[in-house]
Write a structure and sequence with these properties.
12% strand; binds flavin mononucleotide; Four Helix Bundle (Hemerythrin (Met), subunit A); TIM Barrel; 8 strands
Length: 338
């Protein structure tokens, strides 16, 4: 698989959001997108129920596993498990600012220890036959210069197949992870500079991409884009991106068709004991902007939470949005123009 991954379009790792049910649904929107798991800590894979933590289905592919940690041996072990489970890439999280992660001495704080990251990646590479990549930030509070990022990349580059850069710094003292995705300003120019200075480096831009115009602009300057929140709140955006960036790949005709295609999966999962809510919670933003979207959302949010709710709840909710209007909506004016 080495080198064969198309990184032009990917969907970010997001804890509690990008679980296997979400990925299964998103795959129906975006056949070409590279999808990432939620972050799994390498320690949890070593001590916990690794089989459950790594569970996914072939239909989700291509899926990359994101892991967190800072011990080369433990990371190598976790990488091996991920490789054997069938993930097409193993990504190391060097961007998470949460306090819990800092206490474990991993995530964004490791940007100050590029030599250690290089060791970790080397150990990870030795145990698998798929690309090993890094997701990092531009820097940290106190280390907010291009030279800091450049030194990090120069040190890590020989052991890394691609860098996904969330184009803002991480503030490690006092800002919650949520505010760390909002307050430090985005600076994609620094990522473009990196790609310009190191053209052989595979660089994926992440952060704040919410319309097709931005996506196209970023793709002129780097190898790929990674979409986070917009892919979750407005999954149909990924269908629009896939259609624009991979015009020869067929995509779902409309959102109702997507739900019809998701339904057999929902039914098979219900039969194995998965709750309806665990799957349909990811669909709340599907019809955003269309008349009836709010009723769809409200109905699902109440009826699908009931313990024995079945798939008919979803079909009933979908009837609240007219199929005639489906697929007429483009969310942002910029997207309509590009
Ligand atoms: C709910 C949530 C959970 C996240 N969890 C992770 C994670 O596990 N690993 C990670 O590297 N980034 C995580 N992120 C950050 C995203 O991957 C992404 O870098 C960030 O949202 C910026 O991209 P966006 O502006 O397109 O959303 C998370 C973001 C959100 C909103």
């Amino acid at each position: 698989m080495m080198g064969m991954i198309d990184r032009r379009l990917s969907v970010a790792p997001m804890m509690k959001w990008t679980d296997r049910h979400y990925r299964r649904m998103l795959r129906l929107c975006a056949p070409n997108a590279l999808l990432y798991t939620e972050m799994v800590s390498a320690d949890a894979l070593r001590h916990g129920n690794a089989k459950r933590l790594l569970q996914f289905t072939q239909e989700e592919h291509p899926v990359a596993l994101q892991i967190g940690g800072a011990d080369p041996k433990v990371l190598a072990y976790a990488t091996r498990l991920g490789f054997e489970a069938g993930y097409c890439e193993i990504n190391l999280n060097v961007g998470c600012p949460s306090e819990r992660v800092q206490h474990g001495r991993f995530g964004a704080c490791l940007m100050t220890e590029p030599e250690l990251i290089a060791q970790c990646l080397t150990a990870m590479r030795e145990t698998c036959d798929v690309p090993v990549t890094v997701k990092c930030r531009l820097g940290l509070d106190g280390e907010n210069r291009y030279e800091f990022l450049r030194r990090f990349i120069d040190t890590v580059m020989p052991s890394c197949d691609a860098f996904i850069v969330h184009a803002r710094i991480a503030v490690l003292n006092g800002l919650s992870p949520k505010l760390n995705r909002e307050i430090p300003p985005l600076d994609p120019a620094r990522v473009y500079r990196l790609k310009c200075e190191l053209p052989e480096l595979c660089v994926v831009l992440n952060g704040g991409i919410v319309n097709l115009g931005q996506a196209r602009k970023a793709l002129e300057r780097c190898d790929g884009i990674m979409i986070g929140r917009e892919a979750y709140h407005n999954p149909w955006f990924l269908r629009e991106l896939n259609r624009a960036l991979f015009p020869s790949t067929p995509v779902m005709r409309d959102r109702h068709a997507l739900l019809e295609a998701y339904l057999p999966y929902v039914e098979s999962e219900l039969a194995t004991g998965t709750r309806l809510w665990a799957m349909v919670r990811h669909l709340l933003g599907l019809f955003n902007g269309l008349p009836g979207a709010r009723r769809f959302r409200r109905h699902l949010s109440t009826a699908a939470r009931v313990a024995d709710a079945d798939a008919s709840t979803l079909t009933y909710a979908a009837r609240m949005v007219s199929r005639e209007l489906d697929n007429t909506y483009v969310r942002t004016p910029e997207a309509a123009l590009s």
